[in-house]
């Protein structure tokens, strides 16, 4: 598989704090998920790939371009779409006006073509009816969809989405997954999320980050497989020092050592993820 | 009107291809007026319908340009640039109001000092001449950057990021400030040459702010220069006894020279405005 | 941009809404409603306008102008004044006339039916259905109309069927107003004669 995005030994520090500690990874076409607890460096990595932040060290190659070079960086920006973690907006603008503004930033200078693209992306995220609504009157989920629409302008070959499902209700999240799945068929999508269900449902590959490094890079099935032999199901709750929780069927699911009276359970993506996180897992579960 | 009988497909086809008697055409049309089902049975090509709808949607759904954008358009600015500039945070009402108020206040102070005569040792135009050159700096501080522009992060990932956005907005802010201040200049008491002595300092200070902004964030750069300028005016006034020494013809020449020298510098270093620009000299090992 | 929008959201419209509901939604600023109206009415409008103007680009322009006008003036439609289709048609035919005037064309773009009519398709091929049709819609009038010459029939069609004024009919047919008036008078006289 020819990688469309490759990152080698990327480093970044803010002051004395090392946020990225040399992760190396390769992404190909399709949807790749980026999992990790808060502070693992996901957003920093995405910002660097989206060219909004420069790394301190390491090499990047995205869509055949090197963002360290100014001309190539501008060309890369023409081909990428970015949904930041906290997308901002001008509250007094309408949905259409704000999307049109981003379209101009993406160099869609001709009015007819620009309006056509704006309408197209608004239709993709189901906001066509709200084109004339002021942004400040939109709900959180709608604003998220608006930001996603802006990322889709210009039909980018690389989509970088930072926690795109935050604020979406389950129905919207399903629609979002269908949309991203379709987009992933013909381009490279990298999305970061806290939700392992998003990864399991959507991603062909998953990267787990912890402490500024990539601790896993493979398929969701592979991530689940790392938990083989360490997932247990029991009727009684185990000792409080174990990592466990109650499942929907009333039983208790434990990760790690076998508690008394437990039977092996089928490992899932979430189990592999939590086991990889180790000590941080208790805070995340 | 008979609503139970419907046009057979063959008849519709003859109608649409023009192979129908004129009288029958009239009949078909009268029937169509009353029968929704037959109206919807008229065939069409999907692409024709979609293309037609897109043209209509564009005519109907186009947002009315904002007032600022319309004014800019009237001045001959290309439409996409006008829409871009109209979104500049500083060109929002807040800054424009502040500038207008400040200029008005400065004119008022000038007239007040002038009319009270020799009781004051301060030149009537001093307040105006001190304040006028720093108005563009305040605008530039408010026009770009993560703290003042909510859309900054999104913008930083687009081709317009960095110097293109910043310099375009800075230019717009400068022009606005100059126009507003220039309108007030004839209202000032005193010789016209002196009243216009703010222009070159304004240009020089703006160029310096931009040059410094290649090193530090624009708000910091602007703040530093506003403070420096104010202190310079006050101290030179105190030291030499002539409050307007910084506006003398000799000083004006310096400002002009500084502006001319700084502009190429800003142009050369403009990559530094881009947050994605690496901050150190990397060997070109990345050319693989 | 609409100067005034009602504060509450109108009920959602879909492909099953009727024309009156869609027009009410258009008044409220819903572009989706206009799109459905376009989908429903543009095809037959094209067919009907094409019978009056042979230039397909002018017809498309007229359709575009029509729906833009519907968007602007939807509040003028009153359900009591009949079917929405008829109201839309009155807009459409006037837009066609404007388009014709703008393009400054002469006779060559109007009345294509007269050119397309093949000699064989006269009364001989009138099927039983056609006969029923003519009889149903116009009764004896249909037969009488068929006996009029094309020029007179076109004049009657423009003023009576399409509801145009004499001036508008003149633009549509590409003849002076006086000629239209004369033709309508002669046509009516002939029809009276046929039907008497």
Automatic annotation (TrEMBL), chain A:
Q: Locate the ABC transporter domain: which residues?
A: 5-236
Q: Which PROSITE patterns match?
A: ABC_TRANSPORTER_1, ABC_TRANSPORTER_2
Report whether Nucleotide-binding shows up as a keyword of the record.
yes
Q: Which InterPro entries match?
A: AAA+_ATPase, ABC_transporter-like_ATP-bd, ABC_transporter-like_CS, P-loop_NTPase
Q: Which UniProt keywords apply?
A: ATP-binding, Nucleotide-binding, Transport
* GO MF assignments: ATP binding
Family to which the UniProt record says this protein belongs: Belongs to the ABC transporter superfamily.
Name-wise, this protein is: ABC transporter ATP-binding protein
Q: What organism is listed for this UniProt entry?
A: Streptosporangium longisporum
TrEMBL record, chain B:
| Transmembrane regions | 94-113, 125-145, 166-188, 194-213, 220-239, 245-266
Name it: Zinc-finger domain-containing protein
Arranged from A to Z, the UniProt key words for this protein are:
Membrane, Transcription, Transcription regulation, Transmembrane, Transmembrane helix
TrEMBL record, chain C:
**Occurrences of domain RNA polymerase sigma factor 70 region 4 type (ranges):** 141-191
**Cited InterPro entries:** RNA_pol_sigma-70-like, RNA_pol_sigma-70_dom, RNA_pol_sigma70_r2, RNA_pol_sigma70_r4_t2, RNA_pol_sigma_r2, RNA_pol_sigma_r3/r4-like, WH-like_DNA-bd_sf
Signal peptide, first to last residue: none
Keyword Transcription part of the UniProt annotation: yes
* RNA polymerase sigma-70 region domain segment(s): 37-103
One Pfam short name? Sigma70_r2
The domain of life for this entry's organism is Bacteria
Q: Which Gene3D superfamilies match?
A: 1.10.1740.10, Winged helix-like DNA-binding domain superfamily/Winged helix DNA-binding domain (1.10.10.10)
Listed A to Z, the keywords are: Sigma factor, Transcription, Transcription regulation
Keyword Protein biosynthesis part of the UniProt annotation? no
Where are its TM segments located?
Answer: none
PANTHER family membership: RNA POLYMERASE ECF-TYPE SIGMA FACTO (PTHR43133), RNA POLYMERASE SIGMA-70 FACTOR ECF SUBFAMILY (PTHR43133:SF46)
Sequence similarity: Belongs to the sigma-70 factor family. ECF subfamily.
Protein name stated in the entry: RNA polymerase sigma factor
Show the taxonomic lineage. Answer: Bacteria, Bacillati, Actinomycetota, Actinomycetes, Streptosporangiales
């Amino acid at each position: 598989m020819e990688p469309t995005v490759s990152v080698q030994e990327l480093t970044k520090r803010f002051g004395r704090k090392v946020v990225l500690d040399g992760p190396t990874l390769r992404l190909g076409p399709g949807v790749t998920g980026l999992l990790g607890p808060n502070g693992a460096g996901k957003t920093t990595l995405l910002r660097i790939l989206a060219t909004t932040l420069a790394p301190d060290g390491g090499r990047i190659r995205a869509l055949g371009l090197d963002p360290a070079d100014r001309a190539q960086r501008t060309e890369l920006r023409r081909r990428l779409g970015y949904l930041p973690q906290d997308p901002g907006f001008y509250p007094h603008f309408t949905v259409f006006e704000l999307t049109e503004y981003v379209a101009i930033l993406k160099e869609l200078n001709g009015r007819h073509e620009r309006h056509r693209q704006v309408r197209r992306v608004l239709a993709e995220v189901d906001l066509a009816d709200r084109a004339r609504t002021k942004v400040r009157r939109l709900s959180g989920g709608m604003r998220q969809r608006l930001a996603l629409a802006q990322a889709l302008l210009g039909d980018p070959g690389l989509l970088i989405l930072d926690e795109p499902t935050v604020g979406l209700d389950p129905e919207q999240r399903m629609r979002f997954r269908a949309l991203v799945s379709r987009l992933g068929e013909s381009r490279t999508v990298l999305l970061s999320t806290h939700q392992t269900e998003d990864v399991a449902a959507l991603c062909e590959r998953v990267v787990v980050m912890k402490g500024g490094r990539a601790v896993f890079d493979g398929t969701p099935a592979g991530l689940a497989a790392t938990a083989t032999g360490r997932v247990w199901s029991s009727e009684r709750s185990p000792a409080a020092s174990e990592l466990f929780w109650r499942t929907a069927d009333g039983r208790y699911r434990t990760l790690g050592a076998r508690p008394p009276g437990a039977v092996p359970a089928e490992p899932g993506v979430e189990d592999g993820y939590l086991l990889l996180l180790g000590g941080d897992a208790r805070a995340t579960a | 009107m008979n609503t139970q009988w419907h046009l057979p497909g063959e008849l519709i086809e003859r109608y649409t291809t023009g192979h129908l008697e004129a009288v029958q055409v009239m009949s078909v049309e009268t029937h169509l007026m009353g029968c929704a089902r037959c109206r919807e049975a008229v065939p069409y090509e999907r692409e024709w319908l979609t293309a037609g709808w897109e043209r209509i949607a564009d005519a109907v759904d186009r947002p009315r340009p904002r007032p600022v954008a319309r004014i800019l358009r009237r001045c001959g600015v290309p439409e996409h640039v006008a829409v871009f500039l109209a979104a500049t945070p500083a060109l929002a009402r807040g800054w424009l109001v502040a500038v207008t108020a400040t200029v008005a206040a400065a004119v008022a102070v000038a007239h007040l000092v002038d009319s009270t005569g020799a009781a004051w040792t301060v030149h009537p135009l001093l307040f105006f001449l001190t304040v006028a050159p720093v108005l563009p700096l305040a605008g530039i501080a408010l026009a770009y950057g993560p703290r003042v522009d909510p859309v900054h992060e999104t913008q930083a990932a687009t081709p317009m990021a960095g110097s293109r956005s910043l310099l375009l907005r800075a230019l717009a802010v400068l022009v606005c400030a100059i126009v507003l201040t220039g309108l007030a200049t004839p209202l000032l008491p005193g010789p016209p040459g002196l009243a216009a002595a703010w222009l070159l300092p304004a240009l020089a200070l703006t160029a310096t702010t931009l040059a410094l902004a290649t090193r530090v964030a624009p708000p910091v750069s602007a703040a530093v220069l506003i403070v420096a300028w104010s202190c310079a005016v006050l101290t030179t006034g105190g030291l030499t006894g002539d409050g307007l020494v910084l506006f003398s013809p000799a000083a004006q020449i310096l400002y002009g020279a500084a502006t001319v020298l700084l502009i190429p510098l800003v142009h050369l270093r403009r990559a530094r405005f881009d947050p994605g620009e690496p901050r150190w000299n990397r060997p070109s090992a990345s050319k693989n | 941009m609409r100067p005034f929008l009602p504060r509450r959201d109108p009920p959602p419209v879909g492909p099953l809404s009727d024309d009156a509901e869609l027009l009410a939604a258009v008044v409220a600023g819903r572009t989706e409603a206009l799109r459905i109206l376009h989908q429903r009415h543009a095809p037959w409008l094209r067919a009907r306008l094409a019978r009056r103007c042979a230039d397909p680009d002018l017809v498309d322009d007229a359709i575009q102008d029509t729906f833009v006008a519907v968007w602007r003036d939807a509040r003028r439609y009153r359900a009591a004044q009949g079917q929405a289709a008829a109201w839309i048609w009155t807009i459409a035919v006037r837009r066609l006339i404007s388009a014709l005037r703008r393009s400054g064309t002469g006779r060559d773009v109007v009345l294509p039916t007269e050119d397309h009519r093949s000699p064989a398709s006269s009364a001989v091929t009138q099927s039983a259905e056609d006969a029923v049709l003519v009889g149903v819609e116009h009764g004896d009038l249909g037969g009488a109309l068929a006996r009029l010459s094309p020029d007179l029939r076109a004049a009657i069609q423009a003023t009576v069927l399409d509801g145009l004024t004499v001036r508008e009919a003149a633009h549509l047919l590409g003849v002076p107003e006086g000629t239209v008036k004369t033709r309508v008078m002669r046509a009516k006289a002939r029809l009276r004669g046929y039907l008497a």
